[in-house]
Input
Amino acid sequence: MNMAYRPVVSPKRPVAGISQDTVTDNRRTIQRIERRGFLRGSLSLGALTLLCGCDVSNDRSVQSALLAMSRWNDRVQAFLFNPKRMAPTYTDAQVRKPPRFNAFYSIDDVKPVDITTWKLELAGLIADKRPWTLDAINALPQVTQITRHICVEGWDYIGKWSGVSLGTFLQRIGADTTAKFVGFKCYDGYSGSIDMPTALHPQTQLTTRYADEVLPDAYGFPLRLRVATKLGFKMPKWITALEVTNLNPGGYWEDRGYNWFTGI
Amino acid sequence: MRNPGLVDTRIITVHPPLVQFCHWLNVAAIFVMVGSGWHIYNNVPVIPGLTFPDWATLGGDPDLTYKLHGDVGFGNALLWHFAAMWLLVFNGLIYVVHGFVSGRFRRKLLPISVHGVVRDVRDALTFKLSHDDISVYNSVQKVLYVGILGVLGLIVLSGLAVWKPVQFQTLAALLGGFQGARLVHFLCMSAIVLFVIVHVTLALLVPSTLVAMLTGRARVPVAAAPAPPAQPIRPTAEQ
Output
């Protein structure tokens, strides 16, 4: 069967009334023009992404648009965060020993904290800002969790963390828990901050022990943060100072474009 | 009288403007999601040893990005991924709602029969599959289009589980936990990339399909197209 379709216009085609064709043709033309504008808009968006090899990511306006989206995602995540939802817990047998090392430098470059001079300094919207020693922190009611630690890079492990609940600690020092942020500064220059609802979550903890042992030097001794509802980079280690504030303190990776809320 | 041997054809709308718009926006969304996803993936490959070349990823040149932001582009890739996900999801929702409400899905993608698929696969492999009327999908197309819609749904769900494995822990558990969800997410990406390769290749082999998605229109045999509504007879002066 010959199926070669192509436009066939019979020379005998009757010519219809004048107005009908003209109106139809014009309408189509107008529609086509509109459609082309539409397509041009969508194609130029596509063309933008084709430039990725030429580093559209580092274009200033693209960066600010991406960061604006990240701020929007902060709000969405704060909305999705359910303060009553607990992260799943696991058994002692599943705990990874030792935990996995991670910092913005290698394990050989860890500078151990000298515990004889170490103190946890307090700042911001806190009634009692006297610094804390490790012994004093250990004298507070202790909690333990066996939960999954997930890194922004994609790896994970199950760990067992013990220490004082951050919520308990904030109440003990008379922190203004209506403030928005809790910020941390670290011995190695790292820093971080979390939202108050997460700070008050029962599985958010100022950690002093891992797998029933005092935190090893490489894993944050003497004090690290453990948050079961956030990715790993939101949990500073080797903490030296805690601040309660209404001004977002940002953080080491957060200031380098990582999403601030980063809840899981 | 028509020339014998030539079949009468007419131009019809095969893709309404909304479908064209969603299609091309989706191209952009998939492009950004896959490019940035590969960058994120490269940090800790789901399949050990399998990484994607830097030039094919989105997130910026590692050296330049490190100089500008103190990060090799991983942070940027995450920003792209979590920005474009909204485009993918909302554009997809508009398309799917339109597909159901307008009856386009039912009309174009159903019915699918095993017999039809076997027949069309055989015809396709022996180059006998007809592409005369591109407004009507063959069984292989139907299966691929329904399949890719399912895969897109699953990649969004697995992405949600990877993003929020605690808040959506039931969903994450259904997908095999955090790493299980990562694997599902990766497999869905692979299926999408494979689909894109096949889809683009076939569109280039039958260019009228590409033109149809760009203009919305295609020339089809008259017999195959629904008959145009009868022209109302104009009232004449004799009344």
In short: The domain at 10-223 of chain B is CATH 1.20.950.20 (Fumarate Reductase Cytochrome B subunit).
